[in-house]
Amino acid sequence: MFQRLDGARVIPAPFPHVVLHDVLDGDISAELVRQMPPLTTLTGGAQLGSNARFTLNAATALAAPDVSPLWKQIINEGMSQEFLDRVTRLFGPFIRAEFPDFATRFADPERLVARPRQAPERPLGAVGLDAQISGNTPALTGGTTVRGPHLDRTDKLFVGLLYLRLDGDDSDGGNLELYEAVDPEPTFAPKRLLTRDRVRLVKTVPYRRNTLVLFLNTPRALHGVSPRAATPHPRYFLNLVGEMTGPVFDVRCQSPLPAAPPVPETRGLIRRMWNGLVRRSA
């Protein structure tokens, strides 16, 4: 299903990425939308609130009875050696340029092997692949973003987003934004976040059905989601992940705030004080 990647061109700025429109046959993308599993399946029945992220990983989706055979087929293809080989042919030169010691720490990019991300153990040269049915719940109020400028986890080698917009979703926003940092070597907030005043918007990829965005995860791979207008429609995409066994790169992050000390239980404190008074009076 991902054969069009073979003729794709990598855009190097602001970080290596590919944008492919109509990446799947139109009938296939329409059927994936039509056969989208119920939102309660995707969220595990949890009440996630407005414009919140949900993810159904491949292991769970493949075992779920209400995930259709077509969905299971594309999930399996997104976790296959064939898919990984397509990605590494695209990004191999950029992996070597961005991470000169990658082959020493892991393996030559052309010799990476595909393994399920949920596998308990993976050798150094294995890429843990996941193909997640993902998205955001309906936006009950407008002007919110599920996530602003950020970097993904540093053990991810690449990330892909295949958008599957619903029929009738005429809402604004929910587009992918690519940024560059204002500072040459920024210090990130916890979870590798940057505020919008510390980035420049370089490119916007519209949230459009059957558009695939695939990018190499680097210290410059800043991205986020534009604010959504209020809408009753979920925002759906297939999230494709390639994860190494350790960090591919490091960035400087602020330390998280320390946890607040526990507050003593008031009634227990009063009881201990009273018992102490009783003992002293005795």
**What would you call the shape?**
globular
What is the CA-CA span between the terminal residues?
83 Å
Largest sheet: 7 strands, mixed
- Strand proportion, as a percent range, falls in 15-25%
- Summed over residues and divided by their number, the pLDDT gives a mean of 90
Helix content: 10-25%
Instruction: Kindly give the count of domains.
Output: 1
Low-confidence stretches: 265-271, 277-282
Task: Quickly give the CATH architecture.
Answer: Sandwich
Order of helices and strands: EHHEHHHHEEEEEEEEEEH
Roughly how many Å is the radius of gyration?
23 Å
Indicate the structural class: alpha+beta
Classify the oligomer: single chain
- Compute the number of strand runs: 12
Tell me the name of the CATH class: Mainly Beta
Count of DSSP-assigned helices: 7
Explain what the structure shows.
The protein is of the alpha+beta class. It has a single domain (3-281), classed as Sandwich (Jelly Rolls). It has helices at residues 26-34, 39-42, 58-63, 69-77, 81-98, 102-105, 266-281, and strands spanning 17-21, 53-56, 113-116, 126-136, 156-163, 176-181, 187-188, 199-205, 211-216, 222-225, 235-243, 252-253. Strands 1, 2, 3, 4, 5, 9 and 11 form a 7-stranded mixed β-sheet that branches. The longest helix is centred in the N-terminal third of the chain and has 18 residues, at 81-98. Residues 265-271 and 277-282 have low confidence and may be disordered.
